[in-house]
Amino acid sequence: MKTRATFALPAALLLLCAHAFAGTCEDGAEKALPTDAVTYVQKHKVLESVDGPTSVEDTVRLWRRDEDSLCFAVDTVHTYMHLCSLSGQAKRIRSNVYGFSDENCKVEIEVTPKQVSLRVTDPTDSKRGLCNPSEAFGCGANTAIESGAFGRKP
Questions:
Q1: What phi and psi values does residue 128 have, to the nearest 5 degrees?
Q2: Is residue 130 part of a domain?
Q3: pLDDT, greater one: 152 or 103
């Protein structure tokens, strides 16, 4: 009887720990991202009201990538330091390409060893390649998610 209890307790703890780490992609939204997230960046300049042209980094972070899906978080910086974010779970649509869509934004994420390409595929403004997630996702005035290439951060 003592042997069963000794084995059962560690097994139950292992099961609970595995379940705790198997959360959803939304774990990264508005919370600290998992430590296994890989970050990709795109540097550019924006106009800041006091300092003028200012260097900033847009980021794409990926985690829990498997054959059928990946979790992602995109954070962009725009003029006057306005921020825009989009996150969720993208489903595999072909080799190394994942798709995500909601009522305001549809994007494809192509993953290669050194970069991620983010393509807006159903933009609000089809000539500029932008989508405007709702403010619930953290997008303020005059901000949008744009297509672009992001290099893997060392």
A1: -105, -10
A2: yes
A3: 152
Residue matched to tokens 């993208």? 90
Rounded Cα distance, 137 and 131, in Å: 12
Q: From CA 50, how far away is CA 54, in angstroms rounded?
A: 10
pLDDT, tens digit, 9 for 90 and up, residues 121-141? 865 666 666 776 655 456 777
Of 77, 91, 88, 10, which Cα lies nearest the Cα of 44?
Answer: 77
142: pLDDT strictly greater than 70? yes
Contacts of 48 (CB under 8 A, 6+ apart): 54, 80, 81
Total domains in the chain come to 1
Report yes or no on 52 lying in a domain: yes
List pLDDT tens digits, range 46-64.
Answer: 888 888 899 999 999 999 8
In a domain, 20, yes or no: no
* Host domain of residue 61: 25-152
d(CA 65, CA 88): 12
pTM comes to 0.75
Residue 12 lies in a domain: no
Matching residue, tokens 């006057």: 80
